[in-house]
Specification:
Layout lengths: L2 E2 L8 E2 L3 E3 L5 E3 L7 E2 L3 E2 L5 E4 L2 E4 L4 E2 L2 E5 L13 E5 L14 H4 L9 E2 L2 H11 L3 E4 L8 H13 L3 E6 L5 H9 L3 E5 L5 H8 L4 H13 L3 E8 L7 H14 L6 E5 L14 H13 L5 E4 L9 E2 L6 E6 L2 E5 L1 E2 L2 E2 L22 E3 L3
Parallel strand pairs: 11-13, 13-14, 14-15, 15-16, 16-17, 17-18
Antiparallel strand pairs: 1-6, 2-8, 3-4, 4-5, 7-8, 9-12, 10-11, 10-24, 19-20, 20-21, 22-23
Helix pairs in contact: 2-3, 7-8
Length: about 375
């Protein structure tokens, strides 16, 4: 699926992960869509295009804005707890989710409106200056601007900063290893657990996301957490929740954190009601019954659902109230009571960033 570029794009960056076909088209190999482009066409994501017989990226160095967030907002509950993260995104997306909650960014067809520009080095310096411990590529999926994300990741690592990808995991095999080699952590959106949901509500497929998740957990060094947005009447049945969490425990293991998040009406699904808090509680109970040890709720006020419990002694190790850390009971990455190691990337003490959200300019 592709569309014509209305006019020549003056500011582009060479793209990677593509090859020429025998019929003269160029195939983008970055994601499972494998868009095949004639000269002057854009890919489904809109930000990758064919120009001068190559695939180019139209959003390198351009962003919809920069903000310092709590790391728990990504959400990552087992990664540098309580720390600040510099977050930013660009425009476009390689999925077409009808419930997109960042649709003004991900569905943007006006790349030129992106007012903030920054080099990878400037972003890394700004993160360090702000006190952030990491930089998150988020708001829209960084897979489609992988070249820019990887350049930023290299600049961050040069200054001792970690990097986070917030992604739907819809990435091709040829790009997957190189892209995630630049990331220290990832939160992957597992939108649902049926192909029908992915096809009708995301215009995508479930199978590549499952492949990405399994690869990340078993083949990469990336710290991985997973989020599923529960949408009433679409992916919140007991049967689907059992299927999802049983697969999760078997394919990914019991120690990968899973976040169930509440939906609110947005974009093309304004008539769908918000997720009742009881649905998240039910989902968490099903996941825990199926062997998952670290299951969280999000977008609702639920202290228990935000708390990290020790699976050994049951102690409440990290107590969260929204994005505030009320208790941090880890010592050297283990339960301070029974000394069971808790999987994650931990500091000696929790950060104190709290719930603040601070927009910044990159100078």
């Amino acid at each position: 699926m592709s569309e014509q570029i209305p006019s020549r794009i003056d500011e582009v960056h060479p793209g990677r992960w593509w090859h020429a076909l025998d019929d003269g088209r160029l195939q983008c190999d970055l994601c499972p869509r494998h868009c095949r482009l004639h000269e002057g066409q854009r890919a489904f994501c809109f930000v990758r295009a064919r120009q001068d017989d190559q695939i180019v990226v139209t959003t390198w160095g351009r962003s919809t804005g920069f903000c310092i967030d709590p790391i728990e907002k990504k959400p990552l509950n087992h990664f540098l707890t309580g720390s600040a993260v510099l977050s930013f995104g660009t425009a476009g997306c390689n999925l077409g989710c009808r419930f997109c909650q960042n649709w003004d960014i991900s569905k943007s067809r006006e790349v030129e409106r992106l007012s903030e520009r920054a080099t990878p080095e400037a972003i890394a310096r700004a993160a360090l200056r702000s006190g952030a411990k990491s930089v998150a590529f988020t708001y829209n999926d960084p897979v489609i601007w992988a070249e820019y994300a990887l350049d930023c990741a290299a600049a961050c690592r040069a200054l001792g900063l970690k990097t986070v990808a917030v992604t739907a995991g819809y990435i091709g095999q040829s790009a997957r290893g190189e892209f995630f080699a630049g990331m220290d952590a990832a939160n992957v959106d597992l939108k649902a657990f049926t192909e029908d949901f992915y096809k009708k509500l995301c215009f995508a497929e479930l199978a590549p996301v499952k492949e990405t998740l399994a690869w990340l957990v078993h083949e990469s060094k990336v710290w991985v957490e997973v989020t599923t947005l529960l949408i009433p009447g679409h992916n919140d049945s007991d049967a689907e929740l059992h299927a999802l969490t049983e697969w999760f425990a078997s394919a990914l293991g019991p120690d990968v954190p899973l976040h169930f998040s509440a939906f609110h009406p947005d974009f093309k699904m304004m008539q769908t009601p918000p997720t009742p808090p009881e649905t998240l509680t039910r989902a968490r109970a099903i996941a825990r019954a199926n062997g998952l040890r670290y299951v969280y709720t999000g977008n609702v006020h639920d202290v228990e659902g935000g708390t990290t419990f020790c699976p050994g002694c049951g102690d409440a190790l990290i107590v969260r109230d929204w994005y505030e850390i009320l208790k941090y009971g880890l010592e050297d990455g283990a339960c301070s009571r029974c000394h069971l190691p808790i999987p994650g990337v931990w500091d000696e003490a929790a950060g104190t960033w709290g719930a603040r959200r601070a927009p910044i300019r990159i100078l």
